[in-house]
Amino acid sequence: MKRFLFRVLIIGLLAGGVAAILAWPRLNEVETGRTPEYPDLQVHEYGRSSRHILAAAERTVAKLPRWTIVGSGSGRAGSEIRAEMRAAILPLKHAVTIRITRKKGRTVVSARSRSELGKWDFGQNARNIRTFMRALDEELFLP
User: Fold this and answer.
1) What does CATH list as the number for 26-141?
2) Number of H helices and number of E strands within the chain?
3) Please, what's the b/e burial string for 33-50 (b: 16 or more CB within 10 A of its CB; e: otherwise)?
């Protein structure tokens, strides 16, 4: 009886794992406003200068665990921060690009996250963007 229950448990765990895997879209790149599988991921607009938002975005990335700024620059089209997010357990990296532009007197922040390995991110790229955007909002609006 114990052996039977053990087998049922293992089969249940495997079936649950397969169902969980199939629930995620098969993507390895997610971008605000451009990935229909994640309609909640939209650009954020702020009524502050692009310099102020750029500084806040750089501070935000620096504070996030396992995130590192690998480059940044500014020009006529706006500013861009390139960051790397490393997974906690597996040696996986995600390239995150944050764009800051001016549009109709507002500063617009968009983000793209791409997995460096494989064609399936299991939702991590969307979580990266949500994490950054939430942390940026906190950086800008909390005293």
Assistant:
1) 3.30.530.20
2) 3, 6
3) eebeebeebebbebeeeb
d(CA 59, CA 57) in angstroms, rounded, equals 5
Q: How far is CA 100 from the centre of its chain?
A: 16
Q: Which residue type sits at 30?
A: V
Tokens 């451009």 correspond to 34
What's the average pLDDT block by block, 10 residues per block, for the chain (143 residues)? 79 73 78 96 96 97 97 95 89 93 96 86 92 97 75
* pTM greater than 0.90: no
Q: Where are the domains of the chain?
A: 26-141
Which tokens go with 102?
Answer: 């001016």
Structure tokens at 116: 């460096």
Contact between 81 and 69 under an 8 Å Cβ cutoff? The reply is yes
Given a contact cutoff of 8 angstroms between Cβ atoms, the answer to whether 29 and 122 are in contact is: no
Return d(Cα 98, Cα 14) in angstroms, integer: 37
